[in-house]
Write a structure and sequence with these properties.
O-methyltransferase activity, 236 residues, S-adenosyl-L-methionine, Rossmann fold, S-adenosylmethionine-dependent methyltransferase activity, Cation-dep_OMT, SAM_O-MeTrfase
Length: 236
């Protein structure tokens, strides 16, 4: 039987730590450098204002992935491939199917992920999960995935959970990034009406998962939500 990852709730005062130890992030990045290709991707993303996972989130994803040792990963929201490459480097024997809808980011990810695409360790798809034909794609016909990582439209997280949960294997882990949205979800201090819709949907999503799922929050950056699928749970 597959081991179930348990992550307890805790609080990290990241702002206070950074103020007290302003050189700590740079020290840790030097001590645990990322793969060179990932560093190049980060530089490109920063120069072109493309949001990608932070080094802190990448570190958490590597830890979860190495603890759970998934054989198959499904990722929604490739962007240019930083998180995809993070999983690929952490798990050399794992198949990663990554989905990106945006045309420009999909093309960039195809370029950046060539080292893993050529080894057939990563499958990159340009698909819309809202499509009724999503699961009919030949690369998406697997019965289940051991780890699912979601970094897509935040206002769609509840919909995506309902769409994906049945595809998560028992004992598997589903991870949602940016669930706290700059603190707006907690404070409701969102900057404009457009953000209000996403924030209110995220609050609804958070209420749902904490009441109905084995949910754990890692308050890193904008919040990482980890759900563990237990054997007694239904897929509804």
């Amino acid at each position: 039987m597959k081991n179930t990852l348990k992550i307890e709730r805790y609080t990290v005062m990241t702002d206070t730590i950074e103020q007290a130890y302003p050189n700590q992030s740079a020290y840790l990045e030097a001590l645990f450098p990322e793969y060179q290709q990932i560093q190049q991707m980060r530089t490109y993303a920063q120069d072109h204002h493309i949001p990608v996972i932070t080094p802190e989130i990448a570190s958490a994803l590597r830890l979860i992935a190495q603890l759970t040792q998934p054989k198959k990963i499904l990722e929604l929201g490739t962007a240019i491939g930083v998180s995809t490459a993070t999983f690929a480097e952490a798990l050399p024997n794992t198949l990663i199917v990554s989905v990106e809808l945006n045309d420009q980011r999909f093309r960039l990810a195809n370029q950046f992920l060539q080292p893993w695409l050529l080894k057939e360790r990563v499958v990159l798809l340009q698909e819309d999960i809202r499509s009724a034909n999503f699961w009919t794609h030949p690369q998406l016909t697997e019965d289940s995935y051991d780890l699912i990582f979601v970094d897509a439209a935040k206002g769609q997280y509840l919909f995506l959970l309902e769409k994906l949960w049945a595809r998560l294997s028992v004992g598997g882990v589903m991870i949602f990034d940016d669930v706290l949205q700059h603190g707006w979800v907690a404070t409701l201090n969102y900057p404009n009406h457009r953000q209000k819709t996403a924030v209110m949907r995220l609050r609804q999503f958070m209420r749902h998962v904490t009441q109905n799922k084995n949910a754990h929050i890692l308050p890193i950056d904008d919040g990482l939500l980890v759900l563990v699928k237990e054997g007694k749970e239904s897929d509804e």
